[in-house]
Amino acid sequence: MKFGYFDDNAKEYVITSPKTPLPWINYLGCEDFFSLVSNTCGGYSFYKDAKLLRLTRYRYNNVPGDSNGHYYYIKEGNTIWNPGWMPTKTDLDSYECHHGIGYSIFKGNKNDLAAELTDFVPIGSTCEINKLTMTNHSKEEKHFSIFSYVEFCLWNAMDDMTNFQRNYSIGEVEIHGSAIYHKTEYRERRNHYAVYSVNAPIAGFDTSRDAFLGAYGENSAPDVVVSGSCKNSVASGWAPVGSHQLDVTLAPGESRTYVFVLGYVENLAAEKWVGRPEDGIINRTPAEKLLEKFNTTEKADQALADLKAYWEKLLSHFTVSSKEEKLDRMVNIWHQYQCMVTFNMSRSASYYESGIGRGMGFRDSCQDLLGFVHLIPDRARQRILDIASTQFEDGSAYHQYQPLTKKGNSDIGSGFNDDPLWLIAGTAAYIKETGDYSILDERTPYDNDDSKATDLMEHLRRSFHYTMEHRGPHKLPLIGRADWNDCLNLNCFSTEPGESFQTFGPSEGPNAESVFIAGMFVRYGKDYVEICRHRGMAEEAALAEEAIADMEKTVLDAGWDGEWFLRAYDHYKNKIGSKECEDGKIYIEPQGFCVMAEIGLKEGNCLKAMESVEKYLDTKYGIVLLQPPYHRYHVELGEISSYPPGYKENAGIFCHNNPWISIAETVVGRGNRAWQVYTRTCPAYIEDISEIHRTEPYVYSQMIAGKDAPNFGEAKNSWLTGTAAWTFLNASQYILGIRPDYDGLIVDPCIPSFMDGFTAKRDFRGTTYHIEVENPNHVEKGIASVTVDGNAIEGNLIPVDASKKEVHVKIIMG
């Protein structure tokens, strides 16, 4: 069942019913100011950091759900409605939500009165623009009122929802004309404030939530809106809000547009105060400058046009054209758009991440970089340096950091032993894309301490050596607190029956080992060797090659279970992910990464592992993480078995590592199988089961309930997932096979046999490559010939030629 449709020409998903199975959201903003908006206008806004600089409130576990947002109430007579349906839930005569690339449009119609609300964050400004156009489609003059509404957060989102004894006494606002200023805590320690304004004279305002909603009132029927008149309340403590009243008269056929702006403003130290500082009167000059930029419909329209042009240019760096409409749609639009959102958000702020706890992840941000480095290489460069700055001197790293301060999160700490290798992966991806080795010379601190800075190359060396020097009884890498699977905690024990688990301290071991990290070490160790060679570090390159070869042998000796790769060994040297286990006999992660690393490729291990994945882990909705699920709690495994069977890490379909299997299938040359794995979780290919899947049909979710779960096929945790980067990487670099490398662009497709071929455009190091692939014999992999600008070449590496602005490549598969 569908709840909308794709409009590829407009790059939009059009939702035709407000009653989607879950809120379907969009992200607005691509620099410093961000807003999340659902298909019914729910959501929230923040500047840079969703925890520390939250502008508006959102209640995640509210009932009804998604019932706080950025709302416009329209009151005509006794009828009250919203363009996005919520929160009044008044039945509309028509409704559409258009989620576009960086903007959303809501179209509602009631009693021949139409509202069109365009919502976006402009390039270069710290604000959100809401352009509301009202049109009278009746044959009579219409009189109605518009009431805007936002609820301000008191900046620190965690403190805002916990420290009521203080916060109920600190709310402060000012009202100047049509502008409402939220200046809570300005007098104490902040040089910033929020402003909410409309470009028209207002009939009234409210800034007190109690006054606006009424005693025991709800936002579905605010007292002010029901009565039809604002109270001009000025909040003092309690809960500040922003609401404007506009009284409107429209002749038949007439339209009128209003531009509302919600902005974040900072006072510069050099600017003088207006009035006396002791009176708490804020300097409004920066706010007035901001509002002036968008105070007409024409200015707002130009800002939207500039935003669309920005995205059009950004998404043009890689495009594909084939007979597979859904593939083109995802690669050209939604895969890359989601990659950019994960660049901005990591895992910090979504409808499933509160923006309070996780911040930016070390591992997460490195993986996300794989999907956006071709779009914004300069910002990718800075992201790598930010990530490396949270590393410790021994090569380990903070697992997370705050986006505002860029400092490591000490509450979470370190000990996730896959983290260091992801820094090599991200840096290698950047160098392959740009050819910019100068990043390796950048002085980069440890733990953000500039006195301990080294060049980035030394950070990579310590990353590699951390894994090399932290190995367990089988000479496999130590897992630490966990590897990619944060819920697989194998250094755990319980001293007494029924006690909760504890972790081993440094003096007690720990000895648990990870075959997954071994696969990473081999795969990204090869990149480390190439980087060392380029730097003239021949001795280090030789040492690394020897360590990689030794690790490959170790995996085949101690990490192979006969038909698939083991997952790990726990502290007591028990196998995890083995046919010897009662539950959890086979895991997805090592099958993907060990095959991507080509461990045992010549010996046939890789093909066997892929066949085992298909035999034991495959389902119609994707590949589950493990089988069989854990049916009881295992203290020695940590959190993984705390989930019911079929959910999350306990045999859920983790979309993040399904692309690893698809990529691994291209390694063994099975294009049909790689395609099958790709399409089973790809949003455009499963749009028809939206009532089962429930989350947005245009972006990936983190997980889907597995075959052992009662709600098999139901997704959760949409948008912010490493799935975005990995699926784009899979589709563009391995299925389509257009892959940047150190010395040029590799073209090595591995496609389903039914495909005749495709054409693609790829911007790479200042040159645009026009690539035509033909598959006359309908093979899955293999190249018969390659021509570059009409000249045949050996191999499939297209060398970089900086003198050319355009290059034409033709590939004949066979």
UniProtKB/TrEMBL annotation:
Keywords from the UniProt entry: Glycosyltransferase, Transferase
UniProt-listed Pfam families: GH94_b-supersand, Glyco_hydro_94
CDD domains: GH94N_CBP_like (cd11754)
Natural source organism: Roseburia inulinivorans DSM 16841
Domain of life (superkingdom): Bacteria
Record-annotated Glycosyl hydrolase 94 catalytic domain positions: 310-737
Ranges of residues in domain Glycosyl hydrolase 94 supersandwich: 11-294
InterPro entries reported in the protein's UniProt record: 6-hairpin_glycosidase_sf (IPR008928), 6hp_glycosidase-like_sf (IPR012341), Gal_mutarotase_sf_dom (IPR011013), GH65_N (IPR037018), GH94_catalytic (IPR033432), GH94_Enzymes (IPR052047), GH94N_CBP (IPR037825), Glyco_hydrolase_94_b-supersand (IPR010383)
TM region(s), chain numbering: none
Protein name stated in the entry: Glycosyltransferase family 36
Any one GO MF annotation of this record: carbohydrate binding
UniProt record, GO biological process: carbohydrate metabolic process
